[in-house]
Automatic annotation (TrEMBL):
The keyword Zinc does not apply. SUPFAM superfamilies: FAD/NAD(P)-binding domain. The lineage of its organism: Bacteria, Pseudomonadati, Bacteroidota, Cytophagia, Cytophagales. HAMAP family: Kynurenine_monooxygenase. Keywords: FAD, Flavoprotein, Monooxygenase, NADP, Oxidoreductase, Pyridine nucleotide biosynthesis. Residues 19-343 form the FAD-binding domain. This is Kynurenine 3-monooxygenase. It holds the Pfam family FAD_binding_3. PANTHER family: KYNURENINE 3-MONOOXYGENASE. Its cofactor is FAD. It catalyses: L-kynurenine + NADPH + O2 + H(+) = 3-hydroxy-L-kynurenine + NADP(+) + H2O. Catalyzes the hydroxylation of L-kynurenine (L-Kyn) to form 3-hydroxy-L-kynurenine (L-3OHKyn). Required for synthesis of quinolinic acid. It comes from Hymenobacter endophyticus. Belongs to the aromatic-ring hydroxylase family. KMO subfamily.
Length: 394
């Protein structure tokens, strides 16, 4: 069910569960909650992305792995997603001469999958909308949460109207810069840390070859490891690749030193020579696409009594080098679902067990993600590593 903005001001909180954030995790969580028979009211700051173009500045493709698939299977949507996913059987390394080395991810048949973030989000919004127990409200930004009064200060971003919405139970899935979490941050004994890398990232494109074919190997995650930085590329269904350049903000080779189109082209020609001819939009994209930062956010506790729970990036934002941020958020939903089966409506117990189970795992993933940056940008190109991989794969 979708509510139009004009009817919102007359509607009070109808659901007994409020989900803040209609991103990937918020949609999946809403489906799980509704399947348990709950009425869910889902608020999303953005307009309905199904009517808009690609969302600027966000990675277009994501790697979906086992823990993500399991969570999608739990609500019966894995097959629909599989139809638009491209298997990546391993890493394809590109050296500075354009030479290629392939490292399989596992035994035959084991793969991770490239899926479009917007496509997945759109598909999930379709499913959410079809679910009788869920009401979706777009253009609704949470400005503040009053934990004592259990009230949300909401802004309608279309009409600029503000209103107060009561909640009984609130799920904060509003991403790394969560408004729900910022209310918890003001409570006693709430631990919080955020750490930025000295690297940013920029989205770029390898165009499809003639006839919508893939100009480089389709079923691989491509990496151009260059020691202190790297570029990666994930395949799209239309033959193009979504590339991400992970690059220092400052230093000899950095965003600070690439200031003109000529400098960008010269740099790519020298460092990523086989990619450059496949990137006709490079100069435009490099200066038009934003440079985004990379942050790890840790906090605890994730629950406030049996009223509020954080999940997804709001609870544990990690850097993308392990390809597990969304997958971990999806796994949050799997675990919460199991606890709902075990404990029914005992929310206090569900929230407590959820955070105790998930926190050590997501902390470990946060560490692995930072570690894997070094591996991807540097160690995967080390001849000793390549030899070891060859021996392992025999
Ligand atoms: P988000 O996707 O951030 O969604 C939050 C939602 O809440 C948004 O829709 C937002 O509009 C809404 N919102 C925010 N604030 C408010 C508010 N105040 N009021 C109302 N609504 C609000 N993960 C993987 O698993 N695999 C990958 O390959 C991968 N690659 C990545 C590459 C990059 C470059 C980056 C940056 C991340 C990558 N991730 C990857 C991580 C992944 O994108 C996140 O972990 C995932 O999007 C988290 O989902 P979420 O729903 O918790 O948060």
């Amino acid at each position: 069910m979708t509510d139009t903005p004009s009817s919102i001001s007359s509607v009070e909180n109808t659901g007994n569960l409020t989900v803040m954030g209609g991103g990937l995790v918020g949609c999946l969580l809403s489906l799980y909650l509704a399947r348990h028979g709950h009425q869910v009211e889902l608020f999303e700051r953005r307009p309905d992305i199904r009517g808009a173009g690609p969302v600027e500045g966000r990675s277009i493709n994501l790697a979906l792995s086992d823990r993500g698939w399991r969570a999608l299977e739990g609500v019966g949507i894995a097959e629909a997603v599989r139809e638009v996913a491209i298997a990546m059987h391993g890493r394809m390394m590109h050296d500075t001469q354009g030479g290629l080395t392939f490292q399989p991810y596992g035994q035959a048949g084991q793969s991770i999958y490239s899926v479009s973030r917007a496509g997945l989000n759109r598909r999930m919004l379709d499913l959410v909308e079809q679910e009788p127990g869920i009401t979706v409200r777009f253009n609704q930004q949470c400005r503040r949460v009053d934990l004592k009064r259990q009230e949300l200060e909401m802004l309608d971003t279309e009409t600029q109207q503000e209103r107060v919405v009561p909640y009984q139970r609130l799920f904060g899935v509003d991403g790394a810069y969560s408004a729900v979490r910022s209310a918890l941050q003001r409570t006693d004994r709430f631990n919080y840390s955020q750490e930025y890398l000295n690297y940013g990232y920029k989205e770029l494109t390898i165009e499809a070859a003639a006839g919508g074919q893939w100009a480089i190997e389709r079923n691989a995650l491509h990496i151009w490891p260059r020691g202190q930085y790297m570029m990666i590329a994930l395949p799209n269904l239309d033959g193009s690749f979504n590339c991400t350049l992970f690059f220092p903000y400052e230093g000899p080779d950095s965003f600070a030193t690439l200031q003109t189109p000529a400098q960008v082209t010269e740099f790519f020609g020298r460092v990523f020579p086989d990619a450059l001819p496949l990137m006709p939009q490079l100069e435009t994209e490099f200066f038009e696409n934003p440079t985004a930062s990379l942050v790890t956010i840790r906090c605890f506790p994730w629950a406030e009594q049996d009223h509020v729970l954080l999940l997804g990036d709001a609870a544990h934002a990690i850097v993308p080098f392990y390809g597990q941020g969304m997958n971990a958020g999806f796994e949050d939903c799997t675990i919460l679902n199991e606890l709902l089966h075990q404990h029914g409506h005992d929310w206090g117990r569900i929230f407590q067990e959820f955070e105790a189970l998930r926190k050590p795992n997501t902390d470990a993933m946060a560490d692995l993600a930072v570690y894997n940056f070094q591996e991807m940008r540097d160690r995967v190109a080390d001849p000793r590593f390549l030899l070891q991989k060859k021996i392992e794969s025999k």
